[in-house]
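hey so u asked for the seq, here:
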Amino acid sequence: MIVRRRELIAGGAALATLGGAGALAVTDWQPGSDGEGVDPVELAAISGQAEGGDTVTVPERGRVSLVELFATSCDVCSRQMAPLGRVADRVGDDVQVVSVTNEPLGGTITRADVADWWTAHEGTWPVAHDADLDLTSALNAVSVPYTVVLDAENRVDWRHSGYADDATLLDRLEEARA
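ran it, structure tokens below
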């Protein structure tokens, strides 16, 4: 059996990819949890909800951050809005609460659609769009809703996929403040 060079290289690359994925699965390593922190990303604000302009910096260094990634088509994301609203109302200025969608806007879903969904679900805290998936990638978010709490140095303190009640969110924020 003759193995061609191209097939051998492709096989080696596939094995390396699987090995790397296996190492991540075994070690539980996650971006931002190694003490380095997550680099801030400038995101476009949706519907003028951002304080002070057309962009939102996420996460903000110097403040604890609660970042919620969502999609307007997600039923669990809709249910998550009430607890997020209660949390946003209760925390002080030392905490950044921001929701982020990475839905592709401009086709079947527009910026106005997201703004309307936001208003219908009583969103009063900043909402932004991660068009280039920079924040999504930095947080290793692979589902929605996906909640991340970062400390004031932008280190990931807690991450969660799925619904979380306001008591859980407030507890996680207190831990990140400590």
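The longest helix spans residues 5-27. Strands lie at 41-45, 55-58, 64-70, 95-101, 127-129, 146-150, 156-161.
lmk if thats what u needed
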